[in-house]
């Protein structure tokens, strides 16, 4: 049962407006979204839910449910992404944020890293003027102005190129992104990882703003307000890479323990904001302090932000992130000041 996953690509093609379609047959859009990203394993879903999705997509259960399909992770070197919501290679990732939460800085950093790693980077320029895009254009190799331009460019690159492609939600609402993905798949092109953003920020208010996704990165207003960047929500962000046997066992264990601690830390932090640290039960003080240290460690300086922060950008390998997070969870960093764990890369021995 661990090897089952939804055919997200098929759902995208067959049911572009999945939010409305799901509601029309009595399904909660959040449930469908969690099934697509793997937050809810397919093996634990209700039979009626899977049957309803198959009916909406006008396909058989065998077509909707993929068995034994591996999901390859692209390691980004960005701690909270790799730990909580790994990037699924060849899939579609949606960034859910309001303006000012740092989504374009994160995307710019990713494109900077991808270009260094040999990926081709493409941006489908949105309609209108968005000065905030200027900072990331240096790391975009190709800027296209229409879906057809994008299709032709990708076809020229062929099946040998690994491609990172970003587009605004306006192209999702028109259905053009899904049409592009379907055309590419029909041509045997499966090497495009797609990033969807919403420069207007309306995406935050929708149940399933981008339709079915393999990876979902939700930005947190509280983290952004406290300048804890990248402000990716550790509990609401998720990925199909996390489903079943696709994830290394150590990664799974550390990720689950980290989320459990941060969930409790966030609850305790609400008490601290009202009553102060003295308002926390003595038995919970350790959880609060370790959660505070873990939250600080998950901040990370970016290369593209160096001119503004004066801090050298760093990349942290996943195995180092897992070892560091384990050290914090196990209390090895209890003697360290929170400030010493903020805006660093790997922990220093």
UniProtKB/TrEMBL annotation:
Its main location: membrane. InterPro entries: ATPase_a/bsu_AS (IPR020003), ATPase_alpha/beta_chains (IPR050053), ATPase_F1/V1_b/a_C (IPR024034), P-loop_NTPase (IPR027417). GO terms for cellular component: proton-transporting ATP synthase complex. Keywords: ATP synthesis, ATP-binding, CF(1), Ion transport, Membrane, Nucleotide-binding, Translocase, Transport. It is found in: Membrane. Coiled coil: none annotated. The keyword 4Fe-4S does not apply. GO terms for molecular function: ATP binding; proton-transporting ATP synthase activity, rotational mechanism. Belongs to the ATPase alpha/beta chains family. This is ATP synthase subunit B.
